[in-house]
Amino acid sequence: MKYKPRSYIVVLLMAFVLIAGCSSNNSNSPTNAPKATDAATKAPTDAPAADPNTPKDGGTLTISTFSDIVSVNPLFVQDTASGDAENFLFSKLYDLDRDGNVIAEPWSLASEPPAISEDGKTYTVKLKNSAKWSDGTPVTADDIIFSINATINPDVGSPGISNFDKVDKLDKVDDHTVNITLKQVYAPFAYSLTFRPAPNHILKDVNPKELQKHVFGKDPAQTVTNGPWKWTEWKEAQYLTFEAYPEYWSEVKPHIQKVVYKIYADQNTEVQALIKGDVDTTLAIPITQLAAIEGNDKINVIKGRNATYEYINFSFNKDNFPNKVVPFESQKSRQAIAYALNRQGMVDNVLKGYGYLMNSPFLPGSWADPGDKAINYGYDPEKAKALLAEDGWVAGKDGIVVKDGVRFSFELQYNSGNSRREAVSQIIQQNLKDVGIEVKPKAMEFSTWIDQNLTPGKFPAVLLGWSMDSPDPNQESIFSSKYFPPTGQNSGWYKNEKLDKLWVDGYSVVDQAERKKIYDVVAEEISADLPYVFLYQYGNPQGIGPKVKYAEEDAPEPSHQNGYFFHIIKWWIAE
Are 475 and 489 in contact (CB under 8 A)? Predict the structure, then answer.
C-alpha cells in the first residue's frame, strides 16, 4: 500500500526524516551518463551529436507498476498507484525539499512559505497568481477552501480528514490569499499544507456523499488538472498515459513529453521488463532480484531507507468474522502472535538484510524512535504457547488451539503481485501453525481490495505497509478511535482511550523534546497492546534505465513518499 496515511497505504497518510538514499552513481555529473565509447569506431556525421548530459525536451518515460489506480481525485487518494499518477497531474500547495522542509517550489501553488501567527494557530497562505487548471480557470483561494472543507466533511469520506479536522475557520482574504485558523496548536500542520487541492469550480455543486463516485478522477476526459502533465488515457489493468501540458503555468516546464505508467502482473515481471528495456524505471525491485539488477551496468540502482514499514493489522470488528468472535481480542493472544513470529528471519531471508525490526510505529533513526522503551518481541514459540494457554486456548484434535468452541483461525489478506508479502505471509502461516494458530493467506487485487475491504474496514487481518507522507511522527489517523472507517484510516476498528489522548497530547505542543517524551509513552502502550504486530522498516530499491537523465540535485530521494519522482519535472530522456 500506499496504503498511505495520509500516509499512503503501501498501500499511503506524518512520517519521519530518514537517512537519505544514495545513487549507485556518486558523481556530480548527470546520473546515468553514457559510458565512453571509441570515437574512431563511429561514422562521421555532418552535425555534432547532441550531448546526452544536456537537458532536452521530448521523449517518453515508461514506468512499471503492479497495481492499477483507484482514483486520482486528490480528496480520495490513499494507495500507491493513485498517488503515483496524482504526482504527474496535480500540483501541491507546498512541497518538501530533500531534507523534509516545507517550501514553495517554482511548481508549488503557493508563492511563499506560510506565515504563522504568534500563537501558532493561524496560517496565511498566498497562491501564485499564474497557477491555472487545465481548462484555463485560475487556481484560487476558493480551491483551497473547498478542498479543506470537503476533506473534513464526514459525508465525503476523505482519508485525509485528520490533516484538517483541527481547522476552526477559513477566511478568504482575496482571490490568492487564505487565512487558516486552527482550534488549537497542531504541531504537524505545516506538513498538512503539502496537499493537492481539488477544483472548486468542477466539484462544488456535487453532493458530498456522491463525490467519491464522481467521474472526476476516474475519467481522463472529465478530470481537470493543474500539474505539469495532462491525463490522456487509462486502459484499466494495462496502462495510463500523461502528456506534457503545453499551457502549464510554472516557470519550470517539464522536459519529458510523455509518461506511460504501465501495469504488470507482478514485481518479477516488472524487473524483466526493466532488464529488457521495455520500461525506463521500476519503483520497487524485489530484494531477491537486486543482485542481478546491480550486476547490469545499464541500470542505475537507487537505494536508501524508505519512510515505510510493514505490519499485521488486526480487525476488532466482530462483523468481520464468520462466528462473530474476534480470536485475537485479548492482549495476550496478540502478544502470543508477536512472540510466535520470526521477524528477524523475515528480514534476513526475505529482505536479505535490507530491513530494520520495529516494535512501534516510529521509524528507526527518527527523532521519535523510542529505542528500548517499546517492547521487543523476540522469536519465542514457547512463550507464545504459554501466553495462549494463559488466555484459555487449548490444543484441538487437529493441533489448532480452541477456546469456547472456537478454533483460533483467521484469514490474512495481502495484495497480489507483491512478492515480498507473498513470502512473508507464508512465514507467518508456518510460524503461527507451529504454536497452534491457523492462518489462511489470501492474495487480492489491489485496487479492488482498497475499495471493498481496506477503506470500509472489512477484513479479519491484513499484511500491509504504510508509506509516510511527512517527517512528523503523528499517526493519530491510523490508531485513534476518532478515525474509524469510512471517514478515517483506523481500518481495524481499534480503540484505546489512553492512546487516543496521548496522540492529542503529542501534537498539542511544538517543542520536540516534549513531544518525544509523549511518543515514548505511546510506544510503551502500543507495543504492549498491539493493534498491529509491527514487523520491519523496509526499502524499495529503484531501478532506472540508461535513457533517464537528471542532475545530481534532482536525483530520487528514497526517504520521501513518492521520492522516486523527486524533481521529475527536471528530468529528461536521452534517446
Answer: no
Amino acid, res. 388: L
Q: Among 207, 203, 234, 198, which Cα is nearest to 73's?
A: 198
Q: Is the pTM of this model over 0.70?
A: yes
d(CA 248, CA 253): 7
Closest CA to 472 of 18, 11, 75: 18
Q: Give the tens place of pLDDT for each residue, 276-323.
A: 999 999 999 988 889 889 999 999 999 988 889 999 999 999 999 999
The secondary structure element, H or E, covering residue 65 is strand 60-65
**Residue range 198-251, pLDDT digits in tens:** 999 999 999 999 999 999 999 999 999 999 999 999 999 999 999 999 999 999
Residue 114: DSSP 8-state: P
For 115, 185, 186, the CA distances from 511, given in Å and listed in that order, are 19, 11, 12
Please check whether residue 220 is in contact with residue 242, taking contact to mean a CB–CB distance below 8 angstroms. no
Tell me 371's DSSP state: G
Check: CB of residue 463 under 8 Å from CB of residue 341. no
Please give the pLDDT value at position 129.
97
- What is the CA angle 25-49-228, rounded to 5? 60
Contacts of 340 (CB under 8 A, 6+ apart): 379, 380, 381, 384, 431, 432, 434, 435, 437
Among residues 484, 522, 487, the alpha carbon closest in space to that of 501 is found at 522
Cα 485 off chain centre by? 18
Length of the chain: 575
The amino acid at 503: W
DSSP string, 389-430: HHTT-EE-TTS-EEETTEE-EEEEEEETT-HHHHHHHHHHHH
Q: Is the dihedral of CA 395, 396, 399, 400 positive or negative?
A: negative
In single-letter form, the type of residue at position 123 comes to Y
Beta-carbon count within 10 A of 299 CB = 23
Omega of the bond prior to 556 within 30 degrees of 0, cis?
A: no
Angle at 176 between CA 171 and CA 179, to 5 degrees: 25
Task: Look at the alpha carbons of 519, 522, 527, 528 in this order and tell me if their dihedral is positive or negative.
Answer: positive
Tell me which residue of 400, 386, 464 sits closest to 432, measured CA to CA: 400
Low-confidence residues of the chain: pLDDT under 50: 1-31, 33-47
**Residue 563 cell numbers, joined:** 521520492
